[in-house]
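Write out structure tokens for ABC-2 type transport system ATP-binding protein.
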Amino acid sequence: MTQNAIEITALQKTYRGGRGEPEKHALNGVDLSIPAGSIFGLLGPNGAGKSTLINILAGLVIKTSGNVKIWGFDQDQNPRQSRAAIGVMPQELNLDPFFSPRGALEVQAGLYGVPRAQRRSDEILEMVGLADKADAYARTLSGGMRRRLLLGKALVHQPQVLVLDEPTAGVDIELRQMLWSNIRKLNQDRGMTVILTTHYLEEAEEMCDEIAIINQGNLIARDSTSNLLGQMDAKTLVIDPVSMPQTLPSADGITVEQRANGTLAFTYQSTKTTAEEVLSVVQSAQIHIRDVKTEQADLEDVFLKLTSSR
Ligand SMILES: Nc1ncnc2c1ncn2[C@@H]1O[C@H](COP(=O)(O)OP(=O)(O)OP(=O)(O)O)[C@@H](O)[C@H]1O
């Protein structure tokens, strides 16, 4: 097995501008490797270049320059093998309305040249929860069912790498949980490498081992989710005081703020100050505590810090 499921080197994409529009540099020389067996999140603001990158991996957009290897196969030198190694669940619900779920999977398997004996349509339908709709017309399927069918279609040729473009955009909580559990299962039981784009940072935080952040066509961060979260060592101790003190306490390295709900927020850097030190400041100010809780940075804070500073 290759160590990296995906290896991208100096990838550039420039879209030609139409009718007097300037050309658009959607990717400016991206280098990115994605380890085999990981669940990898690709994040970025609108228009950052995520779909362009995914569509290049899927063979739907032609790169301007650079190199892409999928499962060790160079996209230019081994187009057939590199295409066979990847399955893509697109964002749009573009299904042929005249095919049943089983029919759609069979057609997809045919397109990928999967021999009949190796097709696993029923198993896939079972997995994505569409077994009872196997022979229904696609046009009678709900939005959530269509999305699950698209996941099924991405799996027919048993790719080593599964790419999901905004898999849970606009879906309800129940379906989101189901998709998450499907994705985790594919990753854990079959060792499938999963790459997903998402606008839900909590989804990336919950699902992804590693994360890359793209902004304006450039890769601006790439690290394990825990390291990215560790970059933000600001913590806040929120105290609900029995009564509000006349003057707010102060101490080096601690910012104290009175919140509208009558609590006091003590923000500090956890690498420099301990919660115990904060509590001793509270005590010496003779503030009696009714309740206390802590808050710490999440991926949203990291994302905003990285993407707004450029
Ligand atoms: N076919 C195209 N022709 C011209 N410009 C394009 C084309 N496709 C994308 N772009 C431009 O390239 C840039 C990157 O777009 P892309 O769709 O890759 O971003 P994205 O990160 O996927 O955004 P979103 O989160 O909104 O889906 C944008 O400025 C977009 O307007």
